[in-house]
Design goal:
alpha/beta, TIM Barrel, seven-stranded parallel beta sheet, 11 strands, 33% helix
């Protein structure tokens, strides 16, 4: 039985938050009529305010769709109808930023998103990634060759049923390919009108600076949570330069259990009377206004719990207690 991503049986130097009153266009999709009771302001994901991703404005609690696949992020989801329902519920809750990749499945995840949500609501932003190949469950091989990235980008457009990618991210640097070659190909695809905005993922600060010298980077996606903060220098650069920081693994439920940070998080969750997952998200939302969390799950119940954390913030004392 496949589990969900959560395995359940600071003030920034630049202001990124905007008013939560951005208009949302409700459209009727075949078999699905999205509804947000009370309008956009009442949607749970809107409680965290909004953030700019390039020239897009999205609510500051997104959704990572990776777990809508089979075990080992391989093959189709166990319950395709349930996967579509999760995506539709996410939008109904105010989520209008969805992260995916051609490597999830592979290919399957993008198809599930299109099946669930196309034709897309006008305010929905889909960010996909390219740069990995898959040999089997839990097997990931970087491939940053220009020819691979071009083929991956164009294939993702077809699967997602898009004319142009809203945000296309280099999933990972390939140590066997000069980073300039990989980013340069994304720049060419952008010039050709196939990519609107370029993002990067799993980058060091040095790699981010190199990419910035070649293209306008709008998003940075690294592993980051209350227990794993190696990307603090990268986050600081994002705050300075107006780049959205998308933390993957935001719930700190992979290898982080048993650490001191997680023990403190559990204690704070008990004190606040909220779940440890909501506390982990509240820490991220408080840590930096450049943050755009994308908690993933294959459960509607857990989705609703995660999105409910959009408006939660920790006090200075609580942040200090977590280090």
């Amino acid at each position: 039985m496949k589990t969900t991503t959560d395995n359940r049986p600071a003030v920034s130097r630049r202001t990124f938050m905007h008013g939560a009153g951005a208009a949302v266009i409700a459209v009727s999709l075949p078999g699905w009529a999205p509804a947000r009771a009370g309008g956009q302001g009442a949607a749970p994901a809107a409680a965290g305010g909004t953030i700019k991703v390039g020239d897009f404005t999205v609510n500051r609690m997104g959704y990572g769709a990776m777990w809508l696949t089979g075990d080992g992020i391989w093959g189709p989801p166990e319950d395709p109808a349930g996967a579509r329902a999760v995506l539709r519920r996410a939008y109904e809750l105010g989520v209008n930023f969805i992260d995916t990749s051609d490597a999830y499945g592979p290919n399957v995840n993008e198809e599930v998103i299109a099946d669930a949500l196309h034709p897309y609501p006008d305010d929905l932003v889909i960010a996909t990634k390219g740069g990995f190949t898959r040999g089997g469950p839990n097997q990931w091989t970087p491939d940053g060759r220009p020819e691979h990235l071009r083929a991956a980008c164009e294939a993702s457009l077809k699967r997602l049923r898009l004319d142009v990618h809203h945000v296309y991210q280099l999933h990972v640097p390939d140590r066997n390919v000069p980073l300039e070659d990989s980013i340069g190909e994304l720049a060419r695809l952008q010039e050709e009108g196939k990519i609107r905005h370029i993002g990067v993922s799993n980058f060091t600060l040095e790699q981010l600076r190199l990419a910035q010298g070649l293209v306008d980077v709008v998003s940075m996606q690294n592993r980051y949570n209350v227990a794993i903060r190696d990307s603090d220098p990268v986050l600081a650069a994002c705050e300075e330069d107006g780049i959205v920081f998308i933390p993957w693994g935001p719930l700190a439920q992979r290898n982080e259990r048993g650490t001191d940070a997680m023990a403190k998080l559990d204690e704070l969750a008990d004190e606040r009377g909220i779940s440890v997952y909501q506390t982990a998200l509240a820490w991220l939302m408080t840590r930096s206004a450049a943050m755009l969390p994308i908690p993933g799950t294959s459960s509607i119940e857990h989705l609703e719990e995660n999105i409910a954390a959009a408006g939660l913030r920790l006090s200075e004392a609580e942040m200090a207690a977590l280090g």
